[in-house]
Amino acid sequence: MLRRIVGPKRRPDDWSTPHERALVRLSDRLDGPLEADEAAWLDEHLAGCEDCRAAAVAYEEERIMLRGLAMPEAPRDLQARTFAAIEAEEARRRGGVRVAGVPARRLAPYGAIGSLLIVGLVVGATAFAPVTNVGITGEATPSVPTATVGPQSPRPSVAPGSTPTPPAATPIIVADIAPVSWAQPADDGSYGVNLASVAEVCPPQAAPDCAPIDASASSVVRIEHAPAVVVGSPSGSELVVADAETRTTGGSIYAYNLAPSTPSPEPSAEPTPSPEPTTSPEPSGATSPEPTPTVQPSGAPSPEPTPSAEPSPEPPPSLEPSPSAAIARLAIIDGVVLMGETAAYSPSGTWFAFTARPSDGSRGPDVYIWRQGWDEARRLTNDERSVFAGWLGEGVVASRVGTETMGAHGGGSPEPSDAAPSDAAPSDAAPSGAAPSTDTSVTSVVIDPETGSEAGLTGDGIWRPSIDPSGSFAVYWEGTVATADTPGDWRPAIGRLVIARFDPSADPVMSDPVALIDGPPGVALVDWDARWDERGGRLALWVADPDEAGIGELSAYAVDPSTGLDLAEPLLTDVLALPGYSIHQGRLAWATPPGQGSEGSRLRVLAWSGPDSGTVSSDPGTGDAPVIVVR
Amino acid sequence: MLGAFPTAQAIRRDRALTSVPDRSEAARNVEELFARHHGEIFAYILRMVRDREVAADFTQDAFIKAYRAFDSLEKPEHARAWLYSIAHRVVLDEMRRRKIVRFIPWEGEMKGSAPSVEHEAMEMRLSGPLARALARIPERQRAALLLAEVHDLTGLELAAALGVSHVAARALLTRARESLRQALAAEKETERAAEAARDEEYRSRTSGGRAT
User: What is the interface size between A and B, counted as CB pairs within 8 Å?
Assistant: First the structure.
């Protein structure tokens, strides 16, 4: 209602009622004298309009009240700490090497403050000359590593005082980024997995001017059942699909072999995410100026695991529209509940690992692995209290709930847990008296999937470390966990989500942690999903909404091996996203929840190169069906 | 550019201990800007986020961002509006975040609950109804109103601080005034209803306890 009173495109003679005009003029009058004829009109109108006179009085009263507000005093230490922070930035710019993050202050809640970056991108976009770089429309030749995003845009240029006009969106051509793949329901109830290349993105807030992602892209494969999770192998030759029941009562997980043994007649030119130097089985120090320690679990797996069965280690990349080739589907496990969002292929694509528990409740959660050639997934851990955290090279990183404090008492928690959950904490996730909850210590190990041999990775109190491919950083929960409603469904209890330096040869292996999210008692961090791109230079973090299941917020950051994470200038900040996103080779793809602005779910892509980045979306889907991004 | 900041000498004297020979011009200038404007920037942010600790953190963030983006300040005389625009973005981003990510702890809230509007009212000597009414109106409108009425930003400054066109800023301000009027009216109505409910409850208790 209010919105209609004033619109930016209003013409002076375009008032739908004289009262609207009067309210606008009353407001204008407070900011400066009206033009004579308008002032005369207003006086005349007021004389005959009691409501408008009341508004005039109210506006004056508002002004008096607002101007009477006291001036609060800034804290005394504000100057010292701000100057110290600026000093720290100066030092860093002069070449100091340290883990980023402004010291001596809380960084945690402020992943959100990327304002200048956003302003910079929007305004800076106007500085883009017409893009002449060669864009790639999907027929990228593999292994061309130079991605180009427009000309170099030097500094963000904000012109204060002048009126920033929304720039015309100059699309940014991005080259050599991984194609995006997603599942969407078809008319017949099945799901089609689509594949599209993204060649053009637009600066944030100008996205409508970018051509939407072609949603009519060819379908790669059909899935008969509604999927909950779809994961593509690095080479694009396999898909693992967990059906929707794996999130509820128990369901099945399938592997689709998209590279049938019949060789493709012509060489595929599809830009699959594979031809990266970092797909070697071991953590590569490619982006690190100094040699990165090679990390392997003790009882090191052979660096080139040889699949027991037939498939060649490098099947032709075939995540491309294939004319109805016979696609082999294999149920690799049945009757399980898939837990968390961490399910993933190993960097080489040899292994697939996930956390599951039998849906009949007979066992707690364990880590399962599968590889091509196996009839079914196998349990890698056997303690009913392990979860899959991610990959360290070809080693499975698992986090395990400590045994010493299982039971009724949380004696092992490193911090007192006496504080009652705050009002703000949702009851279902906060450890309250009613839930079967136990604060419990945790540890993380690395397991060789070949042999099952296990080595300690961290000390106590490190849960679900997600380690970047260069082996330099890790994102993890530092603290204790507790179960909520479902036994075995471990959730963060007391502690904080951090990013830290990772060095397996050091003691402790994690150092200089910087908080991403603080979690004092009563705080409900329900779940998160931290993933790195292949080079380790980009980190994406999805954080579940504690109040609304199946929705969360996604952020993305650049991470420099020498200076660390710049939390203050994220690539992407807290956008609403469904669980399950994909970060590969130059782009981050996620799905917006259906129902935002009464729209259907959309696929969104953030692509970057150097300091520049931009986004592009698909047209919204129909109804409530979510877009499911292939991870 | 330094000449445009007349307090430079004074500031450097005050900070003799921390001065470093090769400090950049940006750092020096932003620190001078801090000395001149941090009070009002802090006040604006506090009025928006209603938590002293958070406001202090955001003020710090805003000045760090100002330092990083100092090159984008074209004319020294625009510095104040430029600082407000940075502070405004910091605040809006965070408000948006707070709507969804409620588990983010605020230091002031560690012991349990969010700072009440009443607490804020005491802090800023706001009347209860005004504080609640301000809390009710959309953030951008609240920002426009505070910047215009309390922080005295005029036309183009307001537009620059809000990051919108001049016309849009005025429209926002008009909407804000009307929203606040309605919110104040609603506050009064709520108070009346609460009063009536208390009276009703009192009556039902004293007349035998069959509360409806």
Answer: 270
Region A181-208: mean pLDDT is 76
Q: What is the distance between the alpha carbons of residues A336 and A340, in angstroms, rounded to a whole number?
A: 13
* Residue A59 near chain B (CB below 8 Å): yes
Rounded (10°) CA dihedral A142, A146, A151, A154: 140
Q: How far is B149 from chain A (nearest CA, A)?
A: 6
Contact A541, A475 (CB under 8 A): yes
Q: How far apart are CA A157 and CA B70, in angstroms?
A: 10
Query: 0.80 exceeded by the pTM?
Result: no
How many CB atoms neighbour CB A316 within 10 A? 18
Share of chain A above pLDDT 70, in %: 63
A213 and A350 assigned to the same domain:
yes
Strands A564-565 and A552-560, by their bridges, are: antiparallel
- Asked whether residue A115 is assigned to any structural domain, the reply reads no
pLDDT of A488: 73
Give pLDDT tens digits for A392-402.
Answer: 989 999 999 87
Span A526-576, pLDDT tens digits: 889 999 988 778 899 998 887 777 888 898 888 876 666 666 667 888 888
pLDDT: which is higher, A596 or A59: A59
Domain containing A63: what range?
A: 2-67
The rounded distance, in Å, linking the Cα atoms of A499 and A111 is 12
Token pair listed for A74: 């800034």
- The structure tokens listed for A260 are 């049938």
Query: How many domains does chain A contain in total?
Result: 2
Please give the domain boundaries of chain B with CATH numbers for all domains. 1-115 (1.10.1740.10), 127-212 (1.10.10.10)
For A37-47, letters b (16+ CB in 10 Å) and e give ebeebbeebbe
Asked if A102's CB is within 8 angstroms of B43's CB, the reply is: no
Asked whether residue A377 carries a pLDDT value surpassing 90, the answer given is yes
The pLDDT, as a whole number, for residue A308 is 39
Q: Answer yes or no: do B113 and A423 touch at CB < 8 A.
A: yes
What is the pLDDT, as a whole number, of residue A217? 57
Inter-chain contact B184–A525, Cβ cutoff 8 Å?
Answer: no
pLDDT at A270: 41
What mean pLDDT is predicted for residues A180-209? 76
Q: How far apart are CA A512 and CA A565, in angstroms?
A: 12
| Per-residue pLDDT tens digits for A491-512 | 888 788 888 888 888 888 888 8
CATH at residue A276: 2.120.10.30
CB within 8 Å of A290: residues ≥ 6 apart: none
Average pLDDT (A56-68) is 89
Nearest to A81 among B60, B75, B97 (CB): B60
Distance between CA atoms of A376 and A398, rounded to whole angstroms? 20
Residues (pLDDT < 70) of chain B are 1-23, 95-127, 207-212
Q: What are phi and psi of B108, to 5 degrees?
A: -70, -10
The answer to whether residue A58 neighbours chain B at the CB level (below 8 Å) is yes
Report CA dihedral (A266, A267, A270, A272) to the nearest 10 degrees: 140
- Interatomic CA distance for residues B53 and A155, integer angstroms: 31
**Has residue A39 got a pLDDT over 90?**
yes
Distance from CA of A274 to the nearest CA of B (A): 35
Q: What is the mean pLDDT of chain A?
A: 70
Residue at which a domain ends, from A23, A38, A67: A67
Taking contacts as CB-CB distances below 8 angstroms, the residues of chain A near B132 are none
Sheet holding A462-467, edge to edge: A462-467, A473-483, A490-502, A510-519
- d(CA B102, nearest CA chain A) in Å: 7
The answer to whether position A321 is within a domain reads: yes
- Residue A287 has a pLDDT of 38
- Whether B93 sits inside 8 A of A113 (CB atoms) is yes
